[in-house]
Write a structure and sequence with these properties.
By secondary structure, this protein is of the alpha+beta class. The chain contains four helices and two strands. The protein has a domain of 58 residues.
Length: 107
């Protein structure tokens, strides 16, 4: 189960090149720009799904979730079981075909 909330984060604009003209208005440069992003926060799940949430398919990690998981997993599992599931998860990710259609093995 996930809770989804909106988070306001600063948007980083690309820097101007040295060759660009100085005709840009100061208003365009001086104000901060923000964007709102959707953030998923894990509330509950099976041990397998909780471990899967540690490593997403796109490689993004939620450090808050990792810290909470590592601080609490011993209350509902063992280090051996969590390590086994982590290894299985990374083996699954390594066998997933990449954009060229071949598995991405790291030997």
């Amino acid at each position: 189960l996930y809770t989804v909330y909106l988070k306001k984060v600063r948007y980083h604009r690309p820097t101007r090149s040295l060759s660009s003209s100085h005709s840009d208005s100061d208003d365009e440069i001086s104000h901060l720009e923000w964007e709102t992003v959707r953030v998923r926060f894990v509330k509950a799940g099976t041990l397998k799904k909780l471990v899967e949430a540690l490593s997403t398919d796109d490689g993004e990690l939620e450090t808050t979730y990792i810290n909470v998981f590592l601080a609490t997993y011993r209350s509902f599992s063992t280090p051996k079981e969590v390590l086994k599931l982590l290894l299985q998860r990374y083996e699954e990710l390594a066998e997933t075909p990449t954009s060229n259609g071949k598995p991405d093995y790291h030997e």
